[in-house]
Design a protein that fits this description.
Blueprint: E1 2-7, E2 13-14, H1 15-21, H2 28-36, E3 40-42, E4 45-46, E5 53-54, E6 59-62, E7 66-71
Parallel strand pairs: 1-7
Antiparallel strand pairs: 2-5, 3-4, 3-6, 6-7
Length: 75
Amino acid sequence: MSLMKFELQDEYIELFKLIKVLDLVDSGAQAKMIVSDGYVTRNGEVEMRKRAKIVAGDNLVIGGDVTIDVVAKKE
């Protein structure tokens, strides 16, 4: 299992965009499919909304293999 930290540049990022930005998939379509197929948990709950607003403090697990801690942008 790998652990990653993602520093937000804005108030939030949409879930499928976060997966794409982290290069966990080759395309936005693949990112959307991972979410809609139920492979993503957010703070312990399955997250099926591709455009869910991911904010600082969220913890994501993708496919049971990758854990992402989302942190606020450092001032």
